[in-house]
Write a structure and sequence with these properties.
The chain has helices at residues 7-15, 21-42, 58-80, 153-167; strands at 89-95, 100-103, 105-109, 115-119, 132-136, 140-147, 174-178. It is of the alpha+beta class and 183 residues long. It is rod-shaped, with a radius of gyration of 32 Å. The strands form three sheets. A three-stranded mixed β-sheet has the order 1-6-7. A two-stranded antiparallel ribbon has the order 2-5.
């Protein structure tokens, strides 16, 4: 005993019988694919790959950059005060950009040579949700150093070299001057 199919399915089954069976099957598969694509537009999405990566606001980046500047200034001041002949010092650091986080990506290349990259996401609820590859410190744009011995060329050279080595800033981005006595 064979089960009877509803009338629309009987018509569909009849369409696949005969000489044009493969053509009809390909058309039906294409229509089913388009239907699935159309339905997927209405389904709630988890977002595109990488869209779940936390995006810090510009204010958060400025806060992080300001903290980095202050920490770098304090460390440089403490070290420069120890340089022979430098004396008391004040340091100001400016940054070219904010700290950046680089997320790991997975790149796939197909036979045609086109490639597609996606961020590697971690398990749901992870913070951050993407795999962090590295966190880049901001580039130092310039450093100004005022120290009591800043009028001496030898002290200027020593301080400039220390700042250059520790920050990666070029000598043209570093200035060392004499700190005037206040009082």
């Amino acid at each position: 005993m064979t089960p009877t199919l509803p009338k629309p399915l009987q018509k569909l089954a009849a369409a696949f019988k005969g000489d044009k069976r493969l053509v009809n099957l390909a058309v039906a598969a294409g229509l089913a694919g388009m239907l699935l694509i159309a339905v997927s537009e209405w389904l709630p999405s988890g977002g595109a790959a990488g869209s779940d990566i936390p995006q810090e606001s510009p204010a958060a980046f400025q806060d992080t950059a300001a903290r980095y500047e202050q920490e770098l200034e304090a460390r440089l001041e403490a070290l420069i005060c120890q340089v022979d002949g430098a004396g008391a010092a004040q340091v100001m650091v400016t940054l070219a950009e904010s700290p950046r986080t680089v997320y790991a990506t997975d790149t796939e290349t197909d036979a045609a040579g086109s490639s597609r990259s996606e961020h590697l996401l971690l398990a749901d609820g992870a913070d951050p949700p993407a795999l962090v590859e590295s966190t880049l410190s901001p580039q130092v744009q310039g450093v100004a150093v005022l120290c009591e011995g800043g009028g001496d060329v030898t002290v200027q050279a020593k301080v400039t070299e220390i700042v250059k080595v520790l920050t990666g800033a070029g000598a043209s981005s570093i200035t060392v001057e004499r700190l005037t006595q206040q009082g």
